[in-house]
């Protein structure tokens, strides 16, 4: 890597043609290169701050990463950690360098409690953190698991994380502006057409629409920039209607905010508030608070236009909560998460410091669970395999009645799907075994248990999902309140009647108290 960055090879500069690639090899190389460059910048900063002997000291890296970036680029915290080793930031046998990782917003409760000291965060209560980006909204459901005490910060764990994809907000804003122009628009005629003020322009025509729309986004950005220090609702942008003459239209900031921006913000507020009632999101819980972060328009933080944005979204969310008949209190926070944490941590211990001392606080299973497939009503065991998303076989379970361990006691409850496949899919039941509690060692995940292993059993009849034979099912599990909810869903079917008459998934809830552990 060092030789690469001092190379004088000018081959790359000999061809200015750019290309796009999704080849995983190139992507991985770029990722490692980026982290290596980041490491070099950190080292230079340490050299100037601590001195040349900084390498002899202990250094801890606290890494906070955006969840979408984590999911789409690295895939998991484990992969991210391995990238830190591959790029040289961490060393396998280097006890002086350690790192802890979290998703952005995961450790936000202490900073929120500091900012809103009057709020009552009760034990095992819930709150939602909504982070708004230009093309998606990240919703995280937190549960309070530790209250603030003398010298101790409160703590929460994330019960569920959901990503809601939205259309690019800047494009949506411009489309909304264009829509309003088609309804009500005042034309500033050029000198040639000033005497012909009855000239009609069709703003739905492709030529006029594309000519205005092409220049609209940068002009809107420029108008927002001009209103950083003073909000002038009569300020405007002027756009030529076509390239043949000087006729133009004026779009005032007042119209952009009161018509178009409000409609875009109200749509985002609806997406956030859907989490309160949609059971696929957080409808099974009763959150006490919603905290909203993020500015998808990249407005200058603290500027007049940014304050106007936060006021509009605060009102939209408050109105939505009222219409849904909920008691949830909402807070749109003007600072970014980074700024809020930076302010809170001034003069205090570093971000995610507790993880280096006590470990990562995780929700873990209080028992071990295994699954097997049997025919109904004969109760004969059916062989099946565990496969990954590419169809590669990971485990093979014979027809001897063995259980496959898929949840391990004392281990974090993973949101990763378990895909199972079988060759005899008719009249089948998924049997779930909850092992009896034992102080002895626990079986590893994906280990096989003898069919006579003692414990409580639960059943899911899979023939209720389809009138046809299905060979593949997806098993998922999550904590809902004090229940472990296990869901089995079927794959795509070829007959449309199957979608109308049959459910897509079936679930069973196993009572299990919330269990926490430092990992």
UniProtKB/TrEMBL annotation:
This is Uncharacterized protein. It comes from the Eukaryota.
